[in-house]
Design brief:
By secondary structure, this protein is of the alpha+beta class. Helix content is about 20%, strand content about 20%. Bound molecules: zinc ion (ZN).
Length: about 270
């Protein structure tokens, strides 16, 4: 990832998507240390009540302005740890941008071919994943916690991009954002069993870590395997490899005790 600290709202971008700046805008927000001390922990974009909604809406507006669009271009989903993908239409523009009640319901991923719609995934340890098919001009954004990862949400996104818009998986570029890493992600037996069921060979997915008595789950490797399974080229996958708990100074982490949410968004110009 590339960090841009030159603007008033620092953010990160995927190296793999950066060359397409003329066509797309994308970002991964951070905790934002440039803000005054009283607010530095709260560059959250989640309307989950941890700070007043008007602060969140202000954050979203400032981010949009900096990236060159308006808040009514955002679309947010309710994120229920499913593998459901929504095809975002023009009439969905602005859904979830200003209030939770209009979040796209029971959805964890969005795809669209409509310009000027910024689809955003919120995270604080779960994996935000951005997709771009430059050949068919289609974008996607997914939220993959352990459940979404086990349900192979990246595979569902790629399938939907192919069936809805004729995307060839070989053309799709994918950025796997910051999330809790296997350095910090201790999981219980019930997770191990489901990983085994979903992926078969768990040798590279469930690992031992001296810090913990239970094993750890490598969400990045699991999502990468799902992406390879559906025909995405290995060279077209960028994994940020940034653990939100280890890099809690930059990113919200639920396991570090945060209730704030950072966002990963993508929009076609
Ligand atoms: Zn870590």
């Amino acid at each position: 990832m590339i960090f841009d600290n030159s603007k008033s709202i620092p953010y990160a971008q995927f190296e793999i998507l950066k060359p397409f700046e003329g066509k797309i805008t994308h970002f991964v927000t951070t905790r934002n240390e440039s803000l005054p001390p009283s607010t530095q922990n709260f560059f959250t974009i989640g309307l989950n009540g941890i700070v007043d909604n008007d602060i969140v809406l202000r954050n979203r507006r400032l981010l949009a302005e900096q990236m060159g669009f308006k808040s009514d271009s955002y679309v947010f989903a309710s994120q229920i740890h499913s593998n459901k993908v929504a095809v975002v239409k023009n009439e969905d523009r602005g859904k979830g941008a200003f209030e939770r009640s209009s979040y796209l319901c029971d959805i964890d991923a969005m795809i669209t071919n409509i310009k000027g719609v910024c689809i955003v995934t919120q995270a604080a340890d779960c994996v935000p994943i951005l997709f771009y098919d430059p050949a068919k001009s289609v974008i996607g954004a997914a939220h993959a916690g352990w459940k979404g990862t086990v349900y192979k949400i990246p595979l569902e996104v790629v399938r939907a991009m192919s069936s809805e818009f004729g995307s060839n998986p070989k053309d799709i570029l994918v950025g796997v954002g910051p999330s809790i890493g296997s350095c910090c992600y201790e999981v219980g037996n019930e997770v191990v069993e489901l990983v085994k069921e979903a992926f078969g060979n768990i040798r590279e997915l469930i690992l031992n870590n001296n810090k913990f008595s239970k094993p750890v789950f490598d969400l990045w490797e699991a999502n990468k395997q799902s992406l390879l399974e559906c025909g995405i080229g290995e060279k077209n996958i960028e994994i940020a490899s940034l653990c939100t708990k280890c890099h809690n100074r930059f990113f919200f982490s639920a396991r570090a005790g945060d209730k704030g949410r950072f966002g990963a968004g993508i929009m076609m110009k």
